[in-house]
């Protein structure tokens, strides 16, 4: 891929014509607004590796040829042609799938970040896929800019320039009467401009309700009447898609927002950076990327992948939430069972937070909604039981054998509404803290001190993993402390008891902030618990603790992230590990994928020189905390597991190690496939030579 840098958009439109002569597979345009959006984003900064200076426009020109030599030759010739035409200033050739994906990721993310602009002005779709012949683009875009400039507007420009189609989205506030009028004016004037250049008002997305009003103008009255006759002949009762192509009402009718529609809602999470809860929900722009199928890949949205129902998509949930919260006539707009029902099947996997172009975080919205809903209707018994599990485990430990026996019986599971097929997590013989208090020598060897977060799941149910993490760190030279803290709050967050989670977050920040720093990080091994510090705490704690929570989040890491980074700094010696060959298949945890990354886990697992790791392209495992344990959700949970994860695990050779950092994922894999998945820390610990 040649990433041609230009000093102006006009140069890029002309450069497109030069590039087309070389028969590329694709040419995409990205303007400086999109590129600038990626400058402040931690993740996307890494993907700006190919950008030099501050280009006003970039063409990403992709070639597919038989040999690297052909690619090199074509790139050299293309650069020579650009320079001869006096267009552009820098033409790096990006090679290899991984790097090219990073370039595309930057473009996609830039657009998503644009949708995240807080407030009521949004980059609206209305003229977003006009297309004219590429040779007309320079003149067409010049006139286009004049029309927008006349109204004091500008817009982002990106996408499929090779075919003369550029996505154009002006920023407008469709809750404002004047902007709604402008919306219509611009649509009409751009339609006239497109017709002048013999183009298409909708080069890709279809006409529908947005462009239907202009079809008579674009095609001419006679052709429009023919279309109407066709429609009346085949659909005399106007059943199919009424009002979409013929008899379409003006675009200013049936708009998503009511004029002047703003409603400030008091929330427990802090949504102020998005100017309130409602505006955070309104970030959903309806693009429909959350209707992915397994074949398309990605994880969003697993409940749609299984059911194929719109109300099981992130979009469906966002639409229902927005409609009820903004238009409810009840004193408390959260008092709607319909919303509760639609959110019930959201498994809070956070795939939308990572993959939705607007980063809609439905798990957070659901938690916030449930808090309000329960304040009106009370907290159901099972919800309370799951949320307070850390406390119940603590008490249950006093009679551990009896607790393990009772929770293993079908009668108990049925009584509390759990699926009898499920095996509930058992209490470990000693909690991690009990083990840690024993008189054992745990000093490291001068590589500094780290703190391990004894999360509620590891501490009570899988203390062996915590012990292995401590012993591994010790062996690698680190001193490990378990600081005083309370539970992460994950069980409360997942059940919508946000106020209780807030209290815990406050306590943890107060206790840990003075202790944790760059040279003494807080490490965790259960992603859902440790990542609460990075994902939820900064928006959950009291305002007075926000800065401390943000500072703490920067030094809170998954153990995988810490060890991978230490290895890369040369602080860990690979010769401490076995040289045996091992193949590992990794199933990443949802929250890890949304808030952190699975890359450090892969890098950590490959510290032993002959360990090879590949990631299963799975989304959520389907267990999603307590979701898959709940009787009415059991079947859906299994179906989600069957999408990708279970078949991949079943197909893995018996000697292949299955790795999964999440405790729920390991349970789900065991019950869905009969295979035992290991925590990555366990795998690395077992790989130590002695
Ligand atoms: S939730 Fe995200 S992906 Fe789904 S329609 Fe809304 S903006 Fe698009
Ligand atoms: S959190 Fe997961 S299940 Fe819920 S809407 Fe987002 S992608 Fe779908």
UniProtKB/TrEMBL annotation:
Keyword Protein biosynthesis set for record: no
Domain (4Fe-4S ferredoxin-type) ranges: 337-368
Cross-referenced Pfam families: FAD-oxidase_C (PF02913), Fer4_17 (PF13534)
Superkingdom of source: Bacteria
Single annotated GO MF: metal ion binding
Keywords recorded for this protein, A-Z: FAD, Flavoprotein, Iron, Iron-sulfur, Metal-binding
Keyword Metal-binding among record annotations: yes
Protein name: FAD-binding protein
């Amino acid at each position: 891929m040649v990433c041609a840098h230009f000093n102006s958009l006009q140069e890029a439109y002309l450069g497109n014509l030069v590039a087309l002569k070389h028969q590329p597979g694709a040419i995409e345009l990205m303007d400086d607004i999109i590129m600038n959006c990626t400058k402040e984003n931690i993740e996307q900064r890494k993907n700006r590796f190919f950008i030099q200076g501050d280009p006003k426009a970039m063409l990403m020109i992709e070639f597919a040829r038989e040999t690297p030599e052909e690619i090199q030759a074509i790139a050299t010739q293309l650069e020579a042609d650009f320079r001869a035409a006096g267009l552009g200033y820098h033409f790096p050739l990006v090679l290899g799938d991984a790097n090219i994906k990073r370039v595309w990721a930057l473009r996609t993310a830039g657009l998503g970040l644009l949708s995240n602009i807080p407030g009521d002005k949004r980059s609206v779709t209305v003229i977003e896929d006009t297309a004219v012949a590429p040779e007309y683009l320079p003149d067409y875009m010049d006139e286009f800019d004049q029309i927008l400039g006349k109204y004091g507007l500008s817009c982002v420009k990106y996408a499929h320039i090779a075919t003369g189609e550029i996505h154009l989205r002006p920023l407008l506030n469709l809750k404002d009467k004047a902007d709604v009028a402008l919306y219509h004016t611009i649509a009409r004037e751009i339609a006239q401009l497109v017709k002048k250049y013999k183009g298409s008002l909708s080069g890709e997305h279809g006409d529908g309700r947005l462009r239907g009003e202009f079809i008579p103008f674009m095609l001419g009255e006679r052709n429009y009447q023919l279309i109407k006759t066709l429609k009346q002949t085949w659909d005399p009762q106007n059943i199919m898609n009424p009002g979409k192509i013929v008899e379409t009402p003006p675009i200013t009718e049936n708009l998503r927002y009511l004029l002047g529609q703003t409603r400030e809602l008091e929330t427990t999470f802090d949504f102020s950076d998005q100017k309130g809860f409602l505006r955070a929900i309104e970030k959903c722009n309806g693009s429909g990327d959350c209707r992915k199928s397994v074949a398309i890949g990605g994880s969003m949205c697993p409940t749609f992948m299984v059911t194929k129902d719109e109300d099981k998509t992130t979009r469906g949930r966002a639409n229902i939430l927005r409609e009820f919260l903004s238009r409810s006539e009840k004193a408390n707009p959260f008092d709607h069972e319909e919303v509760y029902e639609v959110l019930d099947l959201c498994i809070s996997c956070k795939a939308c937070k990572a993959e939705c172009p607007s980063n809609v975080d439905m798990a957070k919205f659901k938690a916030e909604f449930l808090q309000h809903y329960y304040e009106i209707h009370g907290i159901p018994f099972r919800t309370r039981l799951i949320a307070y599990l850390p406390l119940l485990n603590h008490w249950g430990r006093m009679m551990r054998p009896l607790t393990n026996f009772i929770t293993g019986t079908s009668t108990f599971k049925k009584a509390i509404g759990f699926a009898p097929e499920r095996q509930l997590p058992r209490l470990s013989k000693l909690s991690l803290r009990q083990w840690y208090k024993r008189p054992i020598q745990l000093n490291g060897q001068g590589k500094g001190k780290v703190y391990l977060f004894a999360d509620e799941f590891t501490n009570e149910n899988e203390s062996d993993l915590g012990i292995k993490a401590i012993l591994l760190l010790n062996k690698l030279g680190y001193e490990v402390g378990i600081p005083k803290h309370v539970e992460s709050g994950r069980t409360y967050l997942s059940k919508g008891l946000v106020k209780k989670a807030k209290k815990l977050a406050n306590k943890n920040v107060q206790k840990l902030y003075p202790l944790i720093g760059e040279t003494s990080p807080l490490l965790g091994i259960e992603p859902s618990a440790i990542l609460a510090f990075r994902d939820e705490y900064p928006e959950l704690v009291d305002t007075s603790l926000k800065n401390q929570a943000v500072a703490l989040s920067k030094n809170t890491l998954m153990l995988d992230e810490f060890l991978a980074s230490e290895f890369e700094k040369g602080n860990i010696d690979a010769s401490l590990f076995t040289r045996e060959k091992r193949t590992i298949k990794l199933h990443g945890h949802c929250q890890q994928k949304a808030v952190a990354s699975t890359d450090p886990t892969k890098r950590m697992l490959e510290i032993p020189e002959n360990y090879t790791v590949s990631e299963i392209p799975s989304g959520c495992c389907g267990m999603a905390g307590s979701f898959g344990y709940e009787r009415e959700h059991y079947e859906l949970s299994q179906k989600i597991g069957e999408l990708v994860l279970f078949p991949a695990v079943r197909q893995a050779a018996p000697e292949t190690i299955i790795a999964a950092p999440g405790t729920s994922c390991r349970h789900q894999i065991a019950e869905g496939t009969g295979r035992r998945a290991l925590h990555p820390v366990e795998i690395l610990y077992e790989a130590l030579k002695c």
